[in-house]
Every structure is written in C-alpha cells, then in structure tokens.
Amino acid sequence: MNLSIIGSGKIVQEALPVITATPGITIHSLWARPHSLEKAQALAARYGISRVTSSYNDILSESQVDTVYVALINSVHYDYALQALQAGKHVILEKPACLCAEELQRLAAEARQRHLMLFEAVTLLHLPAFHLLQTELLPQLGTIRHVECNYSQRSSRLDAYLHGEVLPAFDPAAGGGALMDINIYNLHFAIALLGQPQEAHYYCRRGFNGVDLAGTAVLGAQEWGCLCTGSKETDAPSFGLVQGDNGWLRIDGSVSTMSAITLCLRGQQPQQVPLSPATHRLAPEFAAFADILRHEDYATMNRLLDHSLAVLRTVDSLITTAS
C-alpha cells in the first residue's frame, strides 16, 4: 500500500507512528490545508515523509499513490472519498465514514463498479480481543438478550464550546456531536453482535447550537434490546455489557479499546479472560487494511462495508427520531 494521508489533525498525529511501523504500508505523502501546512511539514520531517502538499489534485494524479486515508472533519468525508475513487484510488475513511447511509451507499457503488476498496477505520472491529469475543466468548453466553455500552469522556474542546467557540467537534454542520463522535463506537459494537435493529430512538441533551452533547440510543428487535450512551460533557467509567441466557460478559473501558474482559457463565464465578498483550489501538486495523489490499480480499472488504452501511442506516433512524 502506497498511502497518502489527507489531514494533519489529532487522529493523524496519533496514527502516524502506527502506520509507519505497519508492514506493507509506505507513506508517500501528506496533504494539509494551506493554514495547516507548517504543522504538516513538521510531521513529515518527524516521520520521514518526503512530500507535503495542499493540492488534492496533485495527490490524486500521482500514479505512485494507490490509497488515500481521509482523516478530515466528518462533513467532507464523502466529497474527498468520491474524488479519490473516481481517480482510481482505494480509500480509508476515518469514522464515521459519512454523515448518512445514502452517502456511503453512493461511495460503495462507486468503489464496487471500479473494483476498488473502501474501508471505514473502526478500531474495535479489528482488535484481537473483539475477534476472541465473537468466536469463543459469545457462543458460551447462549442467546444474546441485552447489550449496554457507555462511552463518556469530557471533551478537551468543551470549555471552548461553553464560552461560545464552536469547533468542528461541536458543530452539527461539520458532523460533530456525541452520536457521531464517541457513541458511534458503541453502535458499531452492538450492531456487529446483534445486527441492524428493527427500532431505534435517540434521547439526547443539546447545546446552544443544537449539537448533541450527550445521548442514549435505544435499539431494539424482537429478541433483544440495547442501550448505547455517549457523552462529551461528562466523565464516567466506560464499559460494555453483554447479557445472554447462559451468562454475561463485561468489557472494562471503552469498547473501542477492549482492554479487559470478564466472563461469567450461569452457576459459575466471574473469570478474567486472558487477552493478548496490548498494542496501540490503531495498529490492528491498519495491519488488516494492508493485508486485505495485498490479498485482494474483496469478500472481507464487502463484509466490512455492509456492516458500516448497517450502522449508518441506524444512525439515520436515530437522527430522525431524536428527542
């Protein structure tokens, strides 16, 4: 994978040391808006990236670049991804992939028509602990009846927002807010386990500009129920809890990292589940993307893309029913 990274913000700064250490990925270039060019040049010097530019057309016309990683504000994901696909590039989209299912459906059709790959960067789906949970732990729980997730973390940008400065993280027009930022991880987790819900409703607390500062998504189907809570205005212990008719399973911390798992089967004592040594949370997903591209594994790519579409269809329902 010869990669061009589109953006220079917080997630890019976190991802760069991971990507540079991932076998099968070479960072060809780094794109940034003109006002962020100096920051991007400093990052490029630090990580040995030879080219920095503020021209997206230059990136898309570069034959050496086969993949772009779009790590910009949520509201521009669709436009940048569409241009990249039309230029014949594979695309990795930072989560959430798009603002609605219709946008992602259009991108998926474009990618499939051109025989290109399109990924959403959702950390938890590629974690070894999540694979263990799906393949070995969940079957022991029997039929899953209830899932509950809480990811509450006071935003470092909240004080600025409360003083009237609206940055993208709290701008509805930019795709900001608790649902699209941190609760999206909970939705990915729940839908990966349970499938797309038959019903979905979102109860949220809004700020002065209408952005959801915190909220709980209530998801349901005939056989199961689910609560997904995300807050950008308060701190609380984050967790995931899965209840089956033969026991329960608890994840300590956000489901996006899955740092510890406890399993308790009916009639037994709770047991800590041994997990593989921790790596950076972003490492498994970029290794997976490189592997899928290298093996031209379109079946896996399409399965992941279908999952992302199910999540955004649920998001559409939540936004429609929000109160």
Quick overview of this protein structure:
The chain folds into two domains: 120 residues, 3-Layer(aba) Sandwich (Rossmann fold), CATH 3.40.50; 157 residues, Dihydrodipicolinate Reductase, domain 2 (2-Layer Sandwich). It has 323 residues and is of the alpha/beta class.
Radius of gyration, whole Å: 20 Å
Spatial strand arrangement across the major sheet: 8-9-10-7-11-12-13-14
What portion of residues is helical?
25-40%
Query: Low-confidence segments, ≥5 residues, pLDDT <50?
Result: none
Please, could you describe this protein's structure?
The chain is α/β, with parallel strands linked by helices and 323 residues long. It folds into 2 domains: 2-121, NAD(P)-binding Rossmann-like Domain (Rossmann fold), CATH 3.40.50.720; 125-281, 2-Layer Sandwich (Dihydrodipicolinate Reductase, domain 2). Helices cover 36% and strands 25% of the residues. The protein has helices at 10-20, 37-47, 56-60, 77-86, 101-113, 128-137, 158-162, 178-181, 183-194, 283-294, 298-321; strands spanning 2-6, 26-31, 51-53, 67-70, 90-94, 118-121, 144-152, 199-206, 212-220, 225-231, 239-244, 247-252, 260-265, 271-272. It has an 8-stranded mixed sheet, with helices on one face. The radius of gyration is 20 Å and the shape is globular.
Describe the protein's topology:
Blueprint (H helix, E strand, L loop, with lengths): L1 E5 L3 H11 L5 E6 L5 H11 L3 E3 L2 H5 L6 E4 L6 H10 L3 E5 L6 H13 L4 E4 L6 H10 L6 E9 L5 H5 L15 H4 L1 H12 L4 E8 L5 E9 L4 E7 L7 E6 L2 E6 L7 E6 L5 E2 L10 H12 L3 H24 L2
Parallel strand pairs: 1-2, 1-4, 2-3, 4-5, 5-6, 7-10
Antiparallel strand pairs: 7-11, 8-9, 9-10, 11-12, 12-13, 13-14
Helix pairs in contact: 4-5, 5-11, 9-11
